[in-house]
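ugh ok fine here u go
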Amino acid sequence: MSGQSESTGVRSRGLSKRMFIVVAIVVVGAVAIALCRPGGDDYKINEIPFQIWVAQHPDFQIQNALAGVGTNAIPHLVRIIREPADSTMAYQLESWIWKRMPQRFRSFFFRSPPVPEWTLKRTALFGLRAFGPEAKAALPDILKLGRSETNKFVQASALVAALSVAPESPDTFSFWREQWNTTNYARRDLATYLRIAYQPYVSAVPLLLEEAKRTQDPTIMEAFEYFGEAARPAMPYMLQLLKNTGNRGDMLEVFLRLGPVASGVVPEVGALLNDSNPAVVAASLQVLSSIGPEARAALPQIQPLLTNDDSTIRMLAASASAHIQAKPELAVPILLQTLENPRRGTANAFMYIQSQQPISPSVTSGSQAAAILLGECGPAARAALPDLEKMLHDPNPATRLFSAQAMWRISRSTSPALPVLLDILNSQPPPQSEQDDTLLMAIEAIEEMGPEAKEAVPSLCRVRTFSMSAHRAVSSALLRVDPAR
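structure:
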């Protein structure tokens, strides 16, 4: 028994010794990593070192988190993307040590679990992208990283960040063209990135058209959505795609944004007014309305729709007819009918709500659509003011918003429209994560009022930290409402 006990003791001492050696190696390695790590950033958020805070909010998660931090974060995000690249071996060593280090030692040597250096830089680029033009000064560092980085995820993030912070810069377009010529990415992805910039890149037109000859990919044509006059050469290719039922919605959305530039597609869009799908008919009417007087050839096809059973189609037909003839008063009677009796007839179609904000397309119908279209009529719709004022008390905040905006556009008076918009802003609780389109559109409506809405500044500042979408919308609104701020 004594021999067995002695043998067990020897094994225990051997295990303890090996454990001690492992712990010693881990501790020495951790100390070496800590000593060799480049100088840190003293900036903290809620007492958390900034780099660790960034690591805790990877990719898109960082965007809304940055809304509460503000532009103070920009130079610290730049510092992250400036840091020299770590070797893969260094990260592997950190991970190995982290996994083997006793729990009680981890907080002493590490402030957070190891994160790959490329992941941290990618997240920092997501953050700079979220600030948009406010982070324009970071462009040289973004481009430097994008051109030197071999990791495709970081490189793509750098390209999108450059297109977001300085879309008008020739250096930004040069970087995009480099990627196009080297085909590091699918060209449809590069076309999508170009669309993000909301910028007319005239120099990109020949490249996109050459790609359109090779492929029938609608994504290539969607890149022209914000190109304005430069998009005219792309119309024949867009018309080819319009003939494909699966691409109609995408092309009609592009035509709607291009407006008069899409005048060459009037015959084909006019023909869609006979389509059996109410959504296609409604979208086509909005396109013809946005084209305006140059869509006069479609008036005979629009006329029968003024008595359509679907209230949304009736309203859009009236609006299109009025816009094409430059006589807004023609639309008012039909729009008033729906405003007063939104349930009259069927309601299978819907109307796209156009916004300056980079939000997903929203749709509406009934009295909300009537209010929006009456607002577009301007002073000619003064007869609608009493009914619109009643809608300011509707329980639905979107209905109150559209009614208030319409009243401003018709009367050019901030009363009683502005108090309703302020109530929408002031009653909004901070969102947890999801984007609130009603809030963004209310901010946009206040921006439209300009300096006459100065009393909205405190409310705008309150919601500025709700999300990065709200941050960008408020920053844009303040430039118009109170430029000196």
